[in-house]
Amino acid sequence: MFCDLKEAFEELGRPSEIDSWYVNFAGFDGNTESTEMAYCQYLINAPGNSRLRYLERGDNFNSHMAVLDGYRRMLAVWRPIHERALGKRFTRADIVAIISERPHQDSEIGEAMRTKGPRH
């Protein structure tokens, strides 16, 4: 999912109205999501995973905050978009639809991201 987001973001010319950190993989929380973080580190370092190396982070994939719920919400939106795209890059609207699920659903940030305004 994050490979698709980052590649589409780059192909669109890094739209200034979308903050780049939204499309970057943050890793997992080392305290509460350590199993996921360890598995992520294993996958990235496994031979032949050149596409996943695109996600490499200097902090050993420790997000320092819980992110798994946000990733799951993003994934639910990403799946149908990914299936519909069939190898084509995502549009700006696709990117916004996916990343706006990252903040907690009770947060006003996600709604602000989906609503057109000065930032999006």
Features:
globular; 0% strand; 120 residues; 2 domains; mainly alpha
Give an overview of the whole structure.
The structure is a single chain. The chain has 120 residues and is an all-alpha fold. It has 2 domains: 1-20 and 67-120, no CATH class; 27-66, no CATH class. The chain is built from 5 helices and no strands. It has helices spanning 2-11, 34-45, 68-85, 92-99, 108-114. α3 (68-85) runs antiparallel to α4.
Radius of gyration, rounded?
Answer: 14 Å
- Largest sheet: number of strands, sense, barrel closure: none
- Approximately how much helix is present in the residues? 40-55%
Distance, first to last CA: 21 Å
Note the overall shape: globular
Determine the mean pLDDT. Answer: 83
Number of domains: 2
| Unreliable residue runs | none
What structural class is derived from the secondary structure elements? mainly alpha
Sequence of secondary-structure elements: HHHHH
Helices, by number, come to: 5
User: How many distinct beta strands?
Assistant: 0
Task: Tell me the strand percentage band.
Answer: under 5%
SSE topology:
Blueprint: H1 2-11, H2 34-45, H3 68-85, H4 92-99, H5 108-114
Helix pairs in contact: 3-4
